[in-house]
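Running co-folding for S-adenosylmethionine.
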Amino acid sequence: MTVENASIRKDDTTTTSFIDEKQIESLLHDCQPTPTSVQRIIARSLSKQRLELDEVATLLNIEDPEQLDAVFTAARELKQSIYGNRIVLFAPLYIGNDCVNDCQYCGFRRSNREAQRVTLNQAEVRAEIEALERVGHKRLILVFGEHPRYSADFIADMTRLAYSVRQGPGGIRRVNINAAPLTVEDYRQVAAAGIGTYQVFQETYHRATYERYHPAGTKSNFNWRLHAHDRALEAGLEDVGIGVLFGLYEWRFEVMSLVAHAIHLEEKYKVGPHTISFPRFQAAQSVTAPDYMVCDEEFKRLVAVLRLAVPYTGLILTARESAAVRNEVIELGCSQIDAGSRLELGGYRQEAHDQNLEREQFQLGDDRSLEEVIMELLERNYCPSFCTACYRLGRTGEEFMKIAIPGSIQQFCTPNALLTLKEYLKNYATANTKSSGEEVLKTQLAKIADSRLQREIVNRLKRIELGERDLYF
Ligand code: SAM
Ligand code: SF4
């Protein structure tokens, strides 16, 4: 059996894989930018082509300020042309922090005896979701430690529970998962519960570094984790999310590896990753900072290059980052952010937000409420979106790629963003947010070139005004 086979066994320690360290390192060494090559690569990306690894290496090697500026400008332009002003909002919900692993960077690691271990029961999860629905959330990501009690059965039950909770006009319409890699059979079980995206981050694609940071537990098996998305896709899940924890190893190597991973999935399953996440290490209980911390300037560069490299993939920017960094980085190509996030287990039900590192995986950089984030997005002329239409209409996996690759996401996404924003303004917003929101709705509506589509959106906005809910294209 080769590691290219998704059914790789847990005890397989073969070293061949689609991450070819030597190739990545030699491309990073050899592909030096020239004004012409940078121009050509940017033009290819702006025509919505996924870039090849040599092209990504060239962009990562840019040091010239003018060429860097060209990369940032192109990333902004590509974001506008594919995603428009829309930013999708979600909230993470930590279900349990028991963990058999000992990831050296994480407050939940098993050797951290100070951590308070908590697994929410069904009533507690219900109460958390009610609190999230009361402020207007529609999309959740359920987060789990790695432990036998967080079995596929357990994840599937929590997913069904999340969909069933109804608080006032609220309801969760998409439940994504961030949890340990599963077997093909287990992925089938969670797929049957109707999950959206299954996220697993490789943390670092550099094998020796990976081994150093994951000395014990199931997660110490690099290959098992590397092929998690293959197994998920083989099990019939259509949307998978990949990611790196930036800070563990050299950021350029990790960006190359993320793109290599995307190419592998695309070539093998005709479906690239639905999302890419790029968390940066944050302080956590009794954890020392890793060796390759990424500064804000490098962070901006890596996001811009990822945007240009895989135009069709959603980029997720989390509340690990401060509001100031988020404001700057969003425009370089992010399509999803979390808002109003609480990382302490059971944190959404508490009135006051009090950072408690004993129940948190790491420290949050942005602890603004959902409405505060929405207000700021509106002031900056973004269109906050709670849209879940693609997944509910079966536009996932290969179907999603068909609309995403030519960049026709806007045909559906912008109208749906407007409808879900209108619903938010009606049900949850205070007066100031409402009036800023109505302004943004007007401006965005005026930009819709297709007059038939524009009329249909106006018609649906009126229906929402009159009390209908959950309308989408
Ligand atoms: N336990 C599962 C796992 O490890 O895949 C899933 C949940 S884990 C709680 C989610 C992600 O948090 C990890 O994949 C890692 O990238 C990130 N993380 C862990 N410690 C972190 C830290 N100190 N700062 C920022 N992100 C961190
Ligand atoms: Fe456990 Fe995940 Fe934290 Fe590792 S990152 S210690 S697997 S919760």
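Result summary
The chain has three domains: 3-17+84-402, 21-79, 404-465.
The beta strands are 86-96, 139-144, 174-178, 198-199, 240-243, 275-277, 314-317, 336-338, 383-385.
Job closed.
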